[in-house]
Design brief:
The complex is a heterodimer of chains A (226) and B (111). Chain A is mostly helical and 226 residues long. Chain A has helices at 10-34, 40-53, 71-78, 80-98, 106-129, 137-168, 183-216; strands at residues 58-59, 65-66. Chain A contains seven helices and two strands; from the N terminus they run ααββααααα. The two termini of chain A are 29 Å apart. Chain B has 111 residues and is mostly helical. Chain B has five helices and no strands. Classes of the chains: A mainly alpha (226), B mainly alpha (111). Chains A and B meet through helix 1, helix 2, strand 1, strand 2 and helix 4 of A and helix 1, helix 2, helix 3, helix 4 and helix 5 of B.
Chain lengths: 226, 111
């Protein structure tokens, strides 16, 4: 889901950069209000977790690869705004140090994976878990459902961003200037890959870690926003 | 053992296992992620290289491109796995450092 340089037009990149600036500002304000000193290590662990889980490329035999993002789990544990910051740090370092995701596409990639993914996942989790006890199985199911919804919606966004490019930017002879595949190809490719394969990695990792943490420290799940 | 220490141990386990993210796609003959093809791959798939993509792509020379050392692209899986683990350690050290710094600046002394 890491859109490389050259796949999105400079204008598209500019739009997503402009969209992310107020989101990052809001995130730092929200985190300033809610993050306590003892939670700071979890922000670092969350960012590290997101980074390393994205290294586990899962193959579709003979096809493409994909991976989990881990952002929904981080959102469940320390809130979606803190998760936005944690995943953003991971994505920026991936682009700069490893060339994974474009420098120009940082705004779009952060919109998909550091904003849409944790927020959709978090609110689906909240909606399903409601006031269920901190140690309940319902919270595990809610976490899994949130993970699935979050990564699927993020993949849909990426698919739309890819797919709009040849519509908006092409030469007179029909050749695309940037990403060459339209919505009819990009959206199904991104969404189906994540619905059928990669999303399940996000579900399993999120549910397992929530189950583990329920036993370790229920403070993460009391009232949800710890 | 404190919970944060347990969780960091878990991250350490993920780092050691991370080469699975190279080995499994290789074993199952899977290619790039969708939309993350190199210029040559696009040329093969569509018969041309989009002009703007050609101009903007691969301009940035990452220090550890694709989680390996520069010039190691053709190495065998053992070497690539080694570089992958080094990349994971380096990436996590930097990311955790930045996140700790941001957290310290933002977090307040409240419970």
């Amino acid at each position: 889901m890491h859109i490389p340089d050259g796949y999105l037009s400079p204008a598209t990149c500019g739009v997503f950069g402009a969209v992310m600036i107020p989101i990052w500002t809001a995130a730092s304000k929200a985190v300033r209000k809610t993050l306590s000193v003892r939670q700071v290590p979890y922000l670092a662990i969350g960012a590290a977790f997101s980074f390393v889980i994205m290294m586990f490329n899962v193959p579709i035999p003979g096809g493409s690869t994909g991976h989990a993002v881990g952002g929904v789990l981080v959102a469940i544990l320390i809130g979606p705004w803190a998760a936005c910051i944690a995943v953003t740090v991971a994505l920026v370092i991936q682009a700069l140090l490893f060339g994974d995701g474009g420098i120009t596409a940082i705004g779009a990639n952060c919109f998909n994976m550091a904003f849409v993914l944790p927020f959709v996942g978090y609110y689906v989790y909240k909606l399903i878990s409601l006031n269920s006890p901190a140690g309940s199985n319902r919270r595990i199911i809610a976490a899994g459902a949130g993970a699935y919804a979050g990564i699927s919606l993020a993949a849909l966004c990426a698919g739309i961003e890819f797919g709009l490019q040849p519509l908006l930017y092409h030469k007179a002879n029909g050749q695309a200037l940037y990403s060459p595949y339209g919505l009819n190809v990009a959206v199904p490719a991104m969404v189906l890959g994540h619905l059928l394969v990669f999303g399940w990695v996000e579900v399993i990792v999120t549910a397992l870690v929530v189950k583990y943490l329920q036993k370790q420290n229920s403070v993460f799940f009391e009232g949800g926003r710890s | 053992m404190t919970l944060t220490r347990k969780l960091w141990t878990g991250i350490g386990a993920f780092i050691i296992l991370s080469p699975l993210g190279l080995i499994l796609p290789d074993h199952f003959k899977a290619g790039s992620a969708w939309g993350e093809w190199g210029v040559e791959e696009i040329q093969k798939m569509t018969g041309y290289v989009p002009q703007g993509l050609q101009r903007l792509s691969e301009r940035w020379k990452a220090p550890l491109p694709d989680y390996t050392f520069q010039g190691w692209e053709g190495q065998d899986l053992l070497h690539l796995s080694f570089a992958y683990i080094i990349s994971a350690v380096a990436g996590i050290a930097i990311i955790a450092g930045i996140a700790l710094f941001i957290g310290k600046v933002l977090a307040k002394e409240h419970e």
